[in-house]
Model the fold of this input.
Amino acid sequence: MGLKIWLGDGLVDQQDAVVSVFDHSLLYGDGVFEGIRVYNGKIFECEAHLVRLYESAKVICLPVPMEIDELTAAMEQTVAANDVKEGYIRLIVTRGIGDLGLNPFLCKDGKIIIIADNVQLYPEELYEKGMKVTSVPSVRNHPMSCPPQVKSLNYLNNVLAKIEAIQSGAGEGIMYNHTGYVAEATGDNVFIVRNGVIYTPPVQAGSLDGITRQVVIRLAEKEGFKVVEKDLTRFDLYVADELFLTGTAAEVIGAVEMDGRTIGTGTPGPVTKLLREKFFEYARS
Ligand code: PMP
Done:
């Protein structure tokens, strides 16, 4: 049996959830999206995700055809209709149907799409052993191009970075910004631990303002850690005691090898493990 998908203004069967080939989201990657977790049947950090969605839409002059409370209700309805308990929501706003030219102002009937499904994204073993990451040549979006804080449907730059990571045998790629500082991973934010202090690049270094990042910073501070947002270099990552990534899909995951260097002891460290544990306690509370 297929899923129930929210399309436009209501739920439809999966096979009927189709969009036009003239939708500029397909033709140009013109639209915005969110990836959101469901824990215990509850939408995780719903408001924070929606704030980011509306801000992304504002920056690309995209009208969202629903108010925030309507959109929340639509997501809840989609989660309930698919009986999602531990899952993932993909929320998409498309630019709508236009002609073959770029002009977004000619587009009509932009669609809200909500997909909710039960998922287990990564094997547990990867969390226990830690992952291998690599520096990738594709540079994170320049702040004067489509701003890196916009979670747009145009992910080609990050897709290229992901290709580079996979082709060099790593699970994730570390992306740098145009000035050579660490920006983020292809779909996650980056943290290091050094002498008991936690560091992460500021959002202005070219990362997405990750919701998991926000939560982990709060939880770490609650545990008494000092969290410093500062520009980080390759050097900082190589010599870190611990390196970990945060994101909706990956949650909190240790990275134990980078560019052929062993990070820390070569297994996920105590701070990574503690924050992963605290993250789940919070998510399931
Ligand atoms: N950076 C990028 C480029 C991402 O796509 C994501 C995942 N949405 C993240 C960081 C992590 O953000 P979040 O914790 O909100 O999932």
User: Anything to note?
Assistant: The mean pLDDT is 97. Residues 46-59 form the longest helix (14 residues). Residues 35, 158, 184, 187-189, 207-208, 210-213, 246-248 surround 4'-deoxy-4'-aminopyridoxal-5'-phosphate (CB under 6 Å). The chain is about 30% helix and 25% strand.
